[in-house]
Structure formats: C-alpha cells, structure tokens
C-alpha cells in the first residue's frame, strides 16, 4: 500500500476549508427563503456560489496531480511547494471572492493555483515512470 502523507494532509485541510464555504451557501439560501437552484438574483449568494465553484473546479485535479507526484517518489520539497501553493492560493482566492473589493487577492491566488497544477504536471512529465 502506498502512503501519501502530503496529499492526505493537503486534501484534509482543503476539506476543512471547503466546509465553511458550503455552509455559507446553505445559510444564505435559507435566509432567502430556501432557494434551491440558482442565486435568486442575490449578489451575496452569487458570490458565495462562485467562490465555492471556483474551489471545486481546481482542487480535484490539483490533488490528483499531487498524489501522482507523491506516488512516484517526488521529494517533500516539491510536494509541499505544490501543495502549499494550492492551500494558500485557494484560501486567498476564497477570501478575495467573498470579501475583497479589489481583484488583486484573486489575481495572486490564481497565480499560486496555476503553480499548484503546473509544478506537478511538469514534474510528472520530467520524471516518467514506466
């Protein structure tokens, strides 16, 4: 059995980060009268849904790449660089989507997120296992 301690840690932290994001959506939907679909043309709900949506659009592929990299023997330095960029980038992006007036935090967060999938992709291509 292959142990993936870095990927497991990063995935667990991201699951904890995801929980308040989804809870905020549920709370807002209930406050609006139990809106089940769409955003009821409510800016706050729309912002929460997009912050969560962006999170789930990037995190799964990044975790798959991180786990492949870890399973193929990448060093902890490479793994934590990619995993750390993912963690910090996703947290900054969510906070930026939910609270910031300026797009600057989201821009920084997206650059970090790009690194979190380009580093493993590059590493995997440079270190093929056959």
From TrEMBL:
Gene3D superfamilies: Membrane associated eicosanoid/glutathione metabolism-like domain (1.20.120.550). The keyword Transcription does not apply. It comes from Luteimonas salinilitoris. Keywords: Membrane, Transmembrane, Transmembrane helix. It is found in: Membrane. Its main location: membrane. This is MAPEG family protein. The chain crosses the membrane at residues 6-23, 55-71, 77-100, 107-126. It holds the Pfam family MAPEG. The keyword Cell cycle does not apply. InterPro entries: MAPEG-like_dom_sf, Membr-assoc_MAPEG.
């Amino acid at each position: 059995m292959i142990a993936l301690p870095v990927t497991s840690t990063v995935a667990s932290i991201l699951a904890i980060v995801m929980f308040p994001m989804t809870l905020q959506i549920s709370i807002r939907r209930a406050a609006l009268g139990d809106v089940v679909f769409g955003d009821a043309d409510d800016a706050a709900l729309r912002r929460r849904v997009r912050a969560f949506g962006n999170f789930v659009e990037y995190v799964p592929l990044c975790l798959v790449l991180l786990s492949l990299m870890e399973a193929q023997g990448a060093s902890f330095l490479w793994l934590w660089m990619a995993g750390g960029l993912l963690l910090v980038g996703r947290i900054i992006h969510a906070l930026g989507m939910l609270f910031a007036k300026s797009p600057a935090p989201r821009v920084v967060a997206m650059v970090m997120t790009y690194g979190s999938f380009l580093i493993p992709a590059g590493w995997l291509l440079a270190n093929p296992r056959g």
